[in-house]
Amino acid sequence: MKISIIGASGKIGSAVSFLIAREPSIKHTVLISREKSLNKLEGIKMDMYDALAAESSDAEIEVYGDNDLSNAVEGSEITVISAGIPRSDNMSRTDLAKVNAKIIKKYVKDISKTCDTKLFIVTNPVDIMTQKALFESGYDKNQVFGLGTHLDSMRFKVAIAKYFGVHIGEVRTRIIGEHGDTMVPLLSATAVGGIPINRLPGYENLPYEEITEFVKNRGKEIIKLKGGSEYGPASAIVNIIKSIINNDKRILTLSAYLEGEIDGITDICIGAPVKLGRNGVEEIVPIKISSNELEAFNHSVSVLKRHWEDIKDI
After folding, report:
1. CATH no. for residue 83?
2. 257 — phi, psi (to 5°)?
3. Band of residue 27 on the pLDDT scale cut at 50, 70, 90
4. What does the alpha-carbon distance between residue 54 and residue 189 come to, in Å, rounded to a whole number?
5. pTM
6. What is the residue range of 235's domain?
7. So which residues are the catalytic ones?
8. pLDDT of 223
């Protein structure tokens, strides 16, 4: 099993690389970065080998520059793309999308010329970058997906567990829509211990708006305190990769291309429940949600479609 990570010299990319290399079922990890970051990448590889030696692992790690993408990625089950610039305080989401769309286009064009792999997009804004990767690669839609609202859903799950004072494993919930300000937490799909949340004592006092704002601003708060998140996103990414390579058929909320599965919505990559297996996104789960949630989801769709129009021809 071979996994490639483009952008492996960055915070998230390096954390993902290490967690992937520790997985027993993944014997070959490829770290890819810009040519000017190759020295750093060699250092990361050496550090990873030291850590793996302590675990008696014989996993193979390779380092490549991004001028040799086809050889680097060839034979990879999944290629994670986390390369791109982070959003600065004075940069709009559209400005960020325009810059990172050029990076995504270059990489997926190079990869798709000779390789058949699954593209797992982490670069932000992730929904639009996922659509750009799908559009430019020419791959089937099941092969291209993004981190979407999976991490947001995990954060929402933590907040619900804390409010009701239960083990996090007892909570089932998800957030759909944009990975951004228009995300939609689904109370209609939330249960604790198999009991719908609206049947639990204390539900009437649930601080929904406060929890939603907590989830929306969690990433910004982490950036403010430590310069950026890495452990949370990296763990979420590896969680998804394991679900695919183990053919678990788990239903997770990723950015995927809709073709009418939810309320007839088409032609957009957005956070939605998907069934994951060895083929990637094997199915968009056609959920039914409350009228208020559907209205909010349609608003999220409209926002993303405007952003897509701004960058699709870059």
Report:
1. 3.40.50.720
2. -85, 125
3. very high
4. 43
5. 0.96
6. 150-311
7. 179
8. 84
